[in-house]
Amino acid sequence: MSSVTLTAKAIRRSLLAVAATSVATTGLFSSAVIAADEEKVERIEVTGSRIQRQDMETASPVTVISAEAIRAEGFTSVDELLQAQTSMAGAALGSSSNNGSDGVAQVDLRGMGSQRTLVLLNGRRMVNSGSGADSSVDLNSIPVAMIARVEILKDGASAVYGSDAIAGVVNIITKKDFEGFQLDLNGSSTSESDGETGEISGLYGFNTDSGNYTFGAAYSKREGVIQSDRDWTEPGYSSYLPTGSLDGMVQDGAGSWEDRSTGYDYTTSSYYQTPNERYSLFANMVQELDNDIVLTADALYTKRKSDQQLAPQPASVMLDVCDSNADSSCVTLTDAMTDAGISADETGRVEYRRRTTDAGPRIYSQDTDTFRISAGLAGELDINNGMNWDVAYTYGKNKAESSVANSINATNLSESVYANQDEWFSGDALTSDIVDDISYTDNADGGNEQHVFSAGLNGDLFDVSAGTVAFAIGAEYRYESGYYNPDPVTVAGDSTAAQQDATDGNYDVISVFQEVSVPFTDKLTGEFALRYDDYSTFGKASTWKIGLTYEATDDLMLRGVAATGFRAPSISELYGGDTGSYDYLEDPWGNEQDSQILVRYTSDEDLQAEESDSYTAGLVYSPSYVEGLSLTLDYWRFKVTNAITRLDVQAGLDACYADASSSSCETFNIGANGDLTNLTSSLTNVGSQDTSGIDFNLAYSFSALSLDWKINNDTTYLLNFEQEGIDYTNMIDGNFGAYAEVRNNFNIQAGQDDWNVMYSNRYIGEMEDLGTGDDVDAVLYHNIAGTYHVSEMITLSAGVKNFTDEEPSSVSNGSDGGTVPEVYDTVGRQYYGGVSVKF
């Protein structure tokens, strides 16, 4: 048996390998290097496989983002650094998501949806988190201060990790095996003197004769940026006016009624960057016990307090019009009103709209607590060359309290209008008594809980002529639950916001899995994985993976993977009830006055699992005649069938408008003559996705002019993105984000032992506006950064992001400010700096 201590093995086991010769590392995200000689490099686990191996080369492409690169680029949140990757697309929620985000931050690999990217912490599942019954991990729960590196597996991995890994895996590795004390201070501000961020963190660790203990704490705060504070922001235009309108008409100065000709600018109250405050505690330990058994554990607690702000509530109520038989709960149409053409509709009602500025802007607040602890035992069996066993338990819990200040009770508003018709229709400011009567604070609560038990065995099976056949087998039990309780006013449908039902449900799954690595020849190795999952909801799922690596020469390695995958329906998809959503849509009948139209979202307890096929094929080329140069090229394709989706509502509207007998009219509950009162979007298993592209990376390290240089370039070229049969390749839209054909990150560094400077740029190619067909301009962001090691104790860093203050491209159906904040930089030039002191 190896003479290396079990403690050392456990520490290395907890570190996921960085495959310098087989991963697509960008210059912006240079790979960490595990320095050890051949004798000390035991078997280690690589992201994407449970087989521990001595080499770090696998068939699957992996991108590694080191802690040093994260700090050098001034990233203060995990979502920010991930969304800068060229492999990301769509519009993942993050710091720039103001409307409907609940303050969460997510990752969207390949633009396939955050629910199709699995997030791991130290190789084990992270509890879903957010406002309750969530389908994805809130990356805000993981502080940047605790990250040693982030590994992104850009390949389908359901056969290894189970559900949700359709598009790939993000594995966040925390700092451990740390000795000493380190204090970090970091901050930033925009060139407009707003949007400040600040972070302070501490890390303390010590070694014992048989283990290591590492502890950390972090506090961060981010200030907001208002949309109208940017010169490029065009004023918003809403039909909901602070003076109110009746049947689309307003009073003029003389008391007569006329058609509304002005709109309300909502950009003065809405954020481009949302405020956020976080407190985090984390710890890691490795302890050798008696009988050569090693105990490993990590714990994390994060409290997030976040806010979003929207313009005052737009209130729309249908008021009964008085006639000879009406009771007192009605409005009387004056002669001036009837002379202007205001009249009751066929139901005897008239619509009244008002922007309730008297109550103030809608302030969305969240207070979330996320806790996770994972512990495991590991050891060796003296069989063959030695086999490793492990058992582990992971528990995660997330709970949240959320509120919306200055919400409006529609029922009370209607009654107030009936009782105070002159005050409401005059166009003057409302009295404080009326405001107090109609406004309230909407309160909700929710949460998620997770239990995971796992056990595994891996090692060598037997030797063949080309090497050793290795294996990994294991089993897992996982329980997931979630709930969300909206405010009773919202549940009852009395709010001017959309009605919403409560969510509550749970499921469990039992899984078994196996992997085998077979060296067919000295140059050709095969990797095979098979997994079986049994869910308490939809039933059974089986997935497989086949990977091949071929060392064509000492300089060139070829690789390829074919795999199947699945995603189980989430708790909110199964048990979510009905929820209203104001989507950006175009009414082809012209009945609606605004682009935001109420759509009723429904769930379904009978949903089945999504299914997927994925393929990657590529090469890694490190020419011996150019020292320090490495090239990677990978083709990838993902196909999802039986996808859980909501059909394209806009396409349904257009189809129903073109043909009143179309099935779309019934599918979306569109009434006669374009009546959208009951417009509905149901979850169903008829969706599909088909996306493919090419990733290219160049990395070159060399010395010249007495300096050490690093040049890196990372490119993703999107060949195709189709969803539900609609081609969104190179399209952008406010509802689903961007699918640019070309995204590119370039980075060049130069320095010596004590200092380095870096220039990087990020390119998002030209796209087509889905709504208008117009060209949307390409954007190139420039960044400059530098690091100086004052001494062994003190390190300083500073930089500028978006140095040339590039403006975001305009999008006709932009979700906010006429653009897509999740895609483009909407806050402008930012200055940042930091100091790190280690004792």
From TrEMBL:
What are the record keywords, sorted?
Cell outer membrane, Membrane, Receptor, Signal, TonB box, Transmembrane, Transmembrane beta strand, Transport
Q: Subcellular localization, per the record? A: Cell outer membrane
Quote the InterPro entries the UniProt record gives: Beta-barrel_TonB, Beta-barrel_TonB_sf, Plug_dom, Plug_dom_sf, TonB-dep_rcpt-like
Q: How does it sit in the membrane?
A: Multi-pass membrane protein
* This protein's record includes keyword Lipid biosynthesis: no
Gene3D superfamilies with a match to the protein in the record: TonB-dependent receptor, beta-barrel domain, TonB-dependent receptor, plug domain
Query: Which SUPFAM superfamilies did the record assign?
Result: Porins
All copies of the TonB-dependent receptor plug domain together span 56-169
Q: Which GO terms describe its cellular component?
A: cell outer membrane
Pfam families (UniProt xref): Plug, TonB_dep_Rec_b-barrel
Q: Where is the TonB-dependent receptor-like beta-barrel domain?
A: 357-802
Q: Does the keyword Cell inner membrane apply?
A: no
Q: What are the boundaries of the signal sequence?
A: 1-35
* Protein family membership: Belongs to the TonB-dependent receptor family.
Annotated protein name in UniProt: TonB-dependent receptor
Species this chain originates from: Shewanella algicola
